[in-house]
Each structure stands twice: as C-alpha cells, then as structure tokens.
Amino acid sequence: MTLFGFIRRILSHTFNLQSEHDELEKKFFEERAALEAKYEKFYEPLYTKRYEIVNGVLKVEGETNEAVIDGGGNKSAEEKGVPDFWLTAMKSNEMLADKISERDEGALKYLKDIKWGRINDPKGFKLEFFFDSNPYFKNSVLAKTYHVVDDENEPILEKAIGTKIEWYPGKCLTQKVLKKKPKKGSKIVKPITKTENCNSFFNFFNPPQIPDDDDDIDDELAEELQDRMEHDYNIGSTIRDKLIPHAVSWFTGEAVQGNEYDGLEGDFDDSDDEDGDDEEDEDGDKEEDEEDEEEEGKGKKKRNGSAKAGRGQQGELPPLCQQQ
C-alpha cells in the first residue's frame, strides 16, 4: 500500500468520527433549545410579578400609601411602584445608554414592560415594548422582530422589522426641525427651516435594511450596511439576553458591565462653521451642516457584532445628528 493510500484509509475513519460528532452536536442543540423553551415558561410568572410590582399593581410588604413629602415640606402626588424602572435599567447598560438621548428620556419614562418571545416561522425572536398612554405617540406597544437563519449553529440575520411609530404632531423624537441661517451676502433674509433625522433610541424600530437589488450596493456600502445590521442585532440580543432577565440588577447598578462593548461608535465632535452657515434647532441650539457631519462620520468605525447580515427588504438608513 502506498503512503497516499494509507493516509486516505486513516482519513476515512476520521471522517466517520466527524460525522458521528456532528450528529451528536445536532442533537445537543435540539435538546438545548427544548430545555431553554421549558425554562422560559418557568421565568414567565416571575416576569409577570416583576411587572406588577414595578407598576404598582401589586403592593409589596412595607409599602406605604402615604404621599411623599419632599425637602420643602410640600406633598407630591403618590407614585406607585418603581418610577422610571426600565429607563434607569437601560441607561445602566453601556450599549443601550449610548442610544438614549436626553430627548428620549421623557418618552421612556412611560415604558411599563419589555418582553421577548421566540418565533418559528420564520425563525427568530420578537421584542415588545409596552407603554402607558403618553404625549409622544399613539402606540401602546412597539415591537421589533428579528428573522434569522442558522448556518452551522451561527445565527445569520436575514432582516429586522420594527413597528411604525405614530407620533403626535410635533413630538417625533427621531427628527428635529432646524433653522438654517442664510449665508453672508445672501439675498435670503429669513432662516430656512428643514427637518433632519436625529440620533434617538426610537430609531431602533426603523432598522437598517439591505436593498433588494444588488446593483445598488457597492463594496463600501455593503460593508457599512452589514456593520449596522450586526450592531442592530447586538442591541436586540442585549435586550433579550441581558436586560430583560436581569432588569432589577441593571436598575440597581449591580449588573457587571464587561468590556465586550469597547469600540462602539462615539459621538460626533462639535465644530464651528467657518462660513457662518450654522443651523439652529427650535430651541436655538447650533447644528452643524449635514455635509460636515457626513465628513466627520467617515472617520468613525463600528465594531463588528456576532451576527452576520443577510439579505433584507429595502428601507431607509437615517443619518445621525447632534443632540443637546
């Protein structure tokens, strides 16, 4: 027998071992999924009781009905449950806090609960954010659904779908109305008013999508889209795997924040407009020109996430703008 034939004979046995291993691994993942589903049912009553306590539905031992008296001696209206529970928990997580602007906080104070569940057709998971009646939008529930496919047990993000938010007039948190001052020497005297997309947590419900036509994507855009989709998937996974099951620990600050989020996108630097072509929002705050923001944004590189991006449906990718 030649050396080559001897090696092939050895490898044939190795291939058989690999096949047996793959079958066992497949069985492992099936049993693990079934075990996770089993314990999710055990968790559900705990989450329900947490919701009741946080929102004042269930009165706990030691809780008082007396009105709160502040330092000035004035009685304030009684607050039931744990005020700003989910907002505080979210802001304790570095990845989520990076997405929450000051303008978002007013709306997130009305957040009563966050839930998640598996979906099987197509495969993936769904996040649901339950809100009390509020002056910002009409929706009582904002949902985000992730469709994924498994590639050798690694999730591949196919697309993400978010709820369309029904904003009340003038209350949209994902856009700002800006007043642009005319350039020096211009015949136009009045400021030009325009609307721009803004950095907001509520952009989470308008996820990035890959266009259906591959001809519309060059290499640079494809890489940018994949990075954004991976980052979006990581946010959803963080809410599912970290925030929801350990919300109390995030609220108290006891949850340990590791280094897995190092290298996230930073804030844009402020710079003055040499031409005097500044923009102001409705409160009179200066905004950089859209062109300047795009130029600065080119130098920012995001960290790749754990999920791969697949094909998706066409959708807008809102640019970032400065926040107060």
Automatic annotation (TrEMBL):
One of its GO terms (biological process) is nucleosome assembly. The keyword Chaperone applies. Residues 257-324 are annotated as: Disordered. GO terms for molecular function: histone binding. It is found in: Nucleus. The keyword Nucleus applies. Residues 262-296 have a biased composition (Acidic residues). GO terms for cellular component: nucleus. It comes from the Eukaryota. Keywords: Chaperone, Nucleus. Belongs to the nucleosome assembly protein (NAP) family. This is Nucleosome assembly protein 12 isoform X2.
